[in-house]
Write a structure and sequence with these properties.
The structure is a single chain. This protein has 262 residues and is an alpha/beta fold. 44% of the residues lie in helices and 15% in strands. A seven-stranded mixed sheet has the order 4-3-2-1-5-6-7, sandwiched between helices. Strand 6, helix 10 and strand 7 form a beta-alpha-beta unit. It is globular and about 55 Å long. Bound molecules: magnesium ion (MG).
Length: 262
């Protein structure tokens, strides 16, 4: 049975039509070198141990990702941290993959849209981006993620895009409209985690970030399910592959057969 698309509580940026190529990328752990929400939880919320326990409960199916993630963020709010403070802490501590800026600028120069698809929260993502690309770039890039409700008393809570989905944000809904176009573009997707599974399988070229620390859930899953993908350690390596495909010196099939970008 095909599950009905969950209703979206948040608007989507327009679908980029008539493009030959479109890039969709996860944010945490893919564009950033460290998961920003884990950072908040571990340092300002209930801590790493409890977070890891929650991660395992999600993997065991005892709790949904949506509810576990909400609990992580609530622990940050309960400790008295405002959204503005959290943004400041993340701006100081979360770094981007050093090759992302060049990757983004190359895509822009080639009229290839780059869309960030995230389980995180848009204002937080833009805040971190603004440190590492120009303010104009941080404002213009498309982000499909969750949002934040800031309450009159200064507390805040995550506003899920798909409140009825057990992921809170069903990432497949960001990529499927491209699949449905009359002349769909070649779709690149870059990700690293479990939340990327639903979108990853609809990409033409799936890049899986592998920084060599051995705990990449998306890589494990793709291997097990025989989903063709390209492991990449950093954006610089992914850019070489993208350039080859866009420039016509490499086919999608050949890039996937390589399986690795170095
Ligand atoms: Mg991720």
């Amino acid at each position: 049975m095909i599950e009905a698309a969950p209703e979206s509580a948040l608007p989507y940026p327009p679908v980029h039509k008539d493009k030959k190529f479109v890039v969709l990328s996860d944010w945490d752990g893919t564009i950033t070198t460290y998961d920003s929400n884990d950072y908040l939880t571990d340092n300002l919320g209930y801590g790493r141990e409890k977070r890891r326990a929650g991660n395992l409960e999600v993997l065991d199916g005892k709790i949904t990702f949506r509810d576990a993630f909400r609990g992580m963020l609530e622990s940050v709010v309960e400790n008295g941290h405002t959204l503005e403070h959290c943004k400041q802490v993340l701006k100081q501590n979360i770094k981007l993959d050093p090759g992302f800026r060049d990757f983004y600028r190359y895509c822009k120069s080639m009229d290839i849209p780059v869309v960030i698809v995230s389980s995180g929260m848009e204002p937080v993502i833009r805040a971190v981006l603004s440190v590492q690309v120009t303010p104009e770039e941080a404002a213009e890039i498309d982000i499909i993620s969750n949002d934040v409700d800031v309450h009159p008393d200064g507390t805040w809570s995550i506003k899920y895009r798909h409140p009825t989905s057990k992921f809170g944000h069903d990432k497949s809904q960001a990529i499927l409209p491209y699949r449905a176009l009359e002349n769909p573009p070649t779709l690149f997707f870059l990700g690293d985690g479990v939340s990327d599974l639903s979108a990853a399988r609809h990409a033409d070229v799936l890049f899986v970030k592998d920084t060599g620390d051995g705990d990449n859930d998306l890589a494990v899953y793709c291997k097990r399910e025989h989903i063709p993908h390209i492991l990449f350690p950093k954006f610089e390596a992914a850019l070489d592959v993208v350039k080859g495909i866009v420039g016509g010196t490499k086919t999608v099939e050949a890039a996937l057969a390589d399986g690795k970008a170095e």
